[in-house]
Amino acid sequence: MCELNVILLSGDNRERIMDSVAKILVEGDSIQLTGILGDKMTVKGSIKEINFSRGEAIILSK
Q1: How many alpha carbons fall within 13 Å on the CB side of residue 53?
Q2: pTM of the full predicted structure?
Q3: β-strand 13-27 against 40-51: which pairing, if any?
Q4: DSSP 1-62
């Protein structure tokens, strides 16, 4: 499987906000993250990068 760790960038701060994300849904400036166990989180921002080789997605905070 290909799960991602999601990192939120806010200025110089880099915070891992969710692990083992299996689905990312973007609607405007809202990004809904769904983990492999069904847990969900919604954040405001935009996707900067998705890197499958490092297993992470980087979101720029709004």
Answers
A1: 0
A2: 0.92
A3: unpaired
A4: ---EEEEEEETTEEEEEEEEEEEEEEETTEEEEEETTS-EEEEEEEEEEEETTTTEEEEEE-
pLDDT in tens, 41-62: 999 999 999 999 999 999 999 8
Domain span holding position 28: 4-61
Is a pLDDT exceeding 70 seen at residue 37? yes
Stated length of the chain = 62
Structure tokens at 38: 């069904």
Number of independent structural domains in the chain: 1
Dump pLDDT digits (tens) for 25-36: 999 999 999 999
Nearest CA-CA partner of 18 in 1, 26, 31, 53: 31
* Residue 33 DSSP code: E
